[in-house]
Amino acid sequence: MENPEAKIFHCDVIDPTGKLLDCQTTSVVLPAHDGQLGILYDHMPMLCQLGLGMMKVTVVSADQYKGPSQGDAFFFVDGGFALVASNSLMVVACSAMALQDAKPEKIQLLIEKTEKNLATPTLSAAERAHESERLRALQRIAEALPGT
User: Fold this and answer.
1) Are residues 108 and 141 in contact, defined by beta-carbon separation less than 8 angstroms?
2) Which fold has domain 4-100?
3) Which of 85, 96, 106, 124 could tie 15 with a disulfide, CB 3.0–4.6 Å?
């Protein structure tokens, strides 16, 4: 019988504020620029550009993480890249937020900032589409938070 621990790999999630997660995991699903991407043990080496969306990490044990030490951890990610090599995943996000830290006030501030960005007349069509998608995602997160 195969050892289940043999299917565990390392995962780091970093954003401009620092390291958000340093853990052992069995799977990660992240928003690549061209769709959702699943990472499992022994994934081929690759570098991919991140898109906008939710990232799910199945945490087995965590060295650095404020959430539960086991189970699913969710992050809202906007841009960056992910590097997979030698059973290790490093996610470097332009912007990331651990959803267990998401408070209604913080989400509302992000919504207001995104709405202000959308009102900027100099946005290109691509920037406007990105900001609109970001606004919809933040509004869905706000609706899903307890107490809102």
Assistant:
1) no
2) ATP Synthase; domain 1 (2.60.15)
3) 96
Domain boundaries, the chain: 4-100, 102-144
Task: Decide: 15 and 94 in contact? Cβ < 8 Å.
Answer: yes
Q: pTM score, two decimals?
A: 0.85
| Residue tagged 């069995």 (tokens) | 26
The percentage of the chain sitting over the pLDDT mark of 90, rounded to a whole number, equals 75
Largest CA distance in the chain: 62
Dihedral over alpha carbons 104, 109, 111, 113 (to 10 degrees): -170
- The encoded tokens of residue 86 equal 């030698």
pLDDT in tens, 12-58: 999 999 999 999 999 999 999 999 999 999 999 999 999 999 999 99
